[in-house]
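Example: Alcohol dehydrogenase 2.
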Amino acid sequence: MTLQKTGFFSCPTQVRFGVNAIDGLRDILGDGGWRNVLCVVDPALVDSKIMTRIAAVAEAAGVTLTQFSEIDPEPKDKSVVAGAALCQTQKSEAIIALGGGSAIDVAKTIGILATNGGVVADLEGVDRFSIAPLPLIAIPSTAGTGSEVSGAAVITDTARNVKMAIRHARFGPAMHAILDPLAISTVPAHVAVHAGVDAFVHAFESYLSKLANPWSDAVNLHAMRLISENIRPYVANRENTQAALGMQNGSALAALSFGTTGLGNVHCMAMVLGSRYPVPHGLANAVCLPHAARFNLIANPARFGDVARVMGMNVRGVPEREAAQMGLDAIGTLCDDLSVPKRLRDLDVTEDSLDTMAKHAFQLNYNRWNPRHTTEADFISMFRSAY
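Written out as structure tokens, the predicted fold is:
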């Protein structure tokens, strides 16, 4: 941890979690007094059990629910524009988001446009809007992005073909989040892997960040513990409610702090990779993780030893460098156990694109947070190692 004169940590979202936590939606709707609510739902969940429960709870609360499901796996500005138009037509007073990070990020951005106006591209950056968005109730269907509690949304600008980050520490997070194992019980195994590793990387990179602080440390260490303990049984059986709830809580905890600490080289590489190739964000993180972690090890070996400990390794009495290597090995074993592809070439990435991706990764300037200063040449080396 870098010693700082001042720091901050906040969690504006009220989180409900547990089996049948979805039933708490009725109290939320009742307390809000809303009558027209837009439900932004992942198209794969339109006819799901959890969507049926949401509709029933809304009906019992006297709420008119309008569904919007025009969402791509990687959220795009066109979806936001279409959803915002429907929101205006229906005079929606609040939004429910059911889905993974894509659905929640689209819902966040719709809510911002509904109260602030303008166009999506105007929102790129930090604190680019000043009016609170429509109230958002986020119900994640994956245990990965943590978008339900984070202050960020990532939307693809289709005109420029780049991913825009929209951040606001106060107005960015959802007002309410509901973590119910029912919502993630039907996730395909490969999606569970990608989302779960993404959540682990959030906690891992936030813990290594140059802006880490005592509050973020506590959250991230427990998040890594929860995820590493539960991801294997959850991937093996998504109806394992204990493992599912552990993953949901770990994912949400991991997302609480990276808005404060920033992330690192893994996410930097994954963002560039996902912009150039049709590779899901979580999968891109998973493939890049071991290589970026190895590069960062020398920057803070003590923290890698902490990672080893929370991942179940016995590091008592082990020299610092050896304990750090155990942390790196534990990460590699986790990826192996989850059958994460080992190489970028396995994702149909071509070798001639590596130098260009390295250039773009360097330009993103994650050196602000990454524990080890990283040059363009370093990114070339990491991408080639991953290739």
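The mean pLDDT is 94.
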